[in-house]
Design a protein that fits this description.
The protein is of the alpha+beta class. The protein has a domain of 82 residues: Surface presentation of antigens (SPOA). 22% of the residues lie in helices and 24% in strands. A four-stranded antiparallel β-sheet has the order 1-2-3-4, with no helix packed on it. One of its GO terms (molecular function) is cytoskeletal motor activity.
């Protein structure tokens, strides 16, 4: 479908509107434009799960089967090293564990770009 404006068609439409106006017939009101959705604002309201990953370890099923209550499993993260912050499983930065009241918390030490406004079209 050709959506380019044709000057002859535009003139014809203007003439038709003039004739209708002269005869007392009101032109149909233009349809209201659809409301533009603010994608970034909608995204900001979606709940996500934030986790702090201490580290990981690879072990065989045999080693897993032998784990007991007092077992110690060495992780691949060095003691004192910042831990990985993840949102829905995706790493977004690093943090240190702190005490916040009676709960543990995290102190962000490094954060990747989280610009949700760049998602808007």
């Amino acid at each position: 479908m050709n959506t380019a404006s044709n000057p002859a068609d535009d003139n014809l439409l203007a003439d038709l509107e003039d004739v209708l106006e002269d005869e007392g017939v009101a032109a149909a009101p233009a349809a209201p434009a659809p409301a533009k959705r603010n994608f970034a604002a909608m995204m900001r309201r979606i709940p996500v799960t934030l986790t702090l990953e201490v580290g990981s370890a690879k072990l065989s099923l045999q080693d897993l089967a032998e784990i007991e209550r007092s077992s110690v499993i060495e992780l691949d993260t060095l003691a004192g090293e910042p831990l990985i912050i993840k949102v829905n499983g995706t790493a977004i930065g690093r943090a240190e564990v702190v005490v916040s009241g009676e709960n543990y918390g995290l102190k962000v030490v490094e954060l990747s770009d989280l610009n949700l406004d760049s998602l808007a079209s």
